[in-house]
Automatic annotation (TrEMBL):
It comes from Brachypodium distachyon (Purple false brome). Pfam families: Epimerase (PF01370). Residues 10-121, 124-209 form the NAD-dependent epimerase/dehydratase domain. GO terms for molecular function: oxidoreductase activity, acting on the CH-OH group of donors, NAD or NADP as acceptor. This is NAD-dependent epimerase/dehydratase domain-containing protein. Transmembrane segments: none annotated.
Amino acid sequence: MESGKKKQVVCVTGASGYVVSWIIKLLLARGYTVRATVRDTDDAEKTAHLRAMDGAEDRLHLLKADLLQEGCFDAAVHGCDCVFHTASPVLQNFTDPQAQLIDPAVKGTLNVLGSCSKAEAVKRRWYALSKTLAEEAAWKFSNDYGIEVITINPGWVIGPLLQHKLNIGAEAILKLINGAPTYPNLCNEWVNVKDVAMAHVLAYEVPSANGRYCLAERAVHHSELVRIINDMYPSILLPDRCADDKPFVPSFQVSMGKIRSLGMEQLIPLETSIKETIDSLKEKGFLSF
């Protein structure tokens, strides 16, 4: 444990999520005491992997909180040095975007910030992994109330799974391997979950951290994703054609300039992230080859 972190207490929202679980794991490894909020502290399916982490018995405290309930984060935030707000829905299939996506993201962000504004111990730093509308609301709140906001905006996150639940990135890899007839005509940014967790923690620990950080090791078309997987696992039957006949969506480069200012000179290569994802899918029982 690092001596400087022994007495530091931080709050992390949305603790059962994929990225958030890795943030908590890293915070515990660095000696922090973590107050982690979940919707149901008694839901073993969503909390068992958190309770099993090294350091959790002494320094992880799970608290119940609802994004849409004003004031319910007051107790979790009180006395904390920092708040990592990561609770925000990530859904591909939804019937009511206002209720399922926008309200939890925007209202949830403002509720957490409202709790931060009441907590004198929270240093003038607050970190959000959020969607566009929630981020806009956070910046406005920051300007109005003088709370410093730092946002981490990753691409599609892949890598090892800590819980038995698929995130969007791992699900995309699984679909390619599980017999999809085509691959989508998409170019996405990809980043390892361990790098995303590290970026969050460093954004708190590095005094000069500020503003918005975009995070991706590489942006590639799904056809390139298929090629990488095929090179690693030539026996897997992968899709050999695109879902449409249109020209491929062009690739692009993601600037690493600002993220390097946090001390992250190199991100985990995409090939390593893909292998870790597939190995984890096998370990968790989603794949059996």
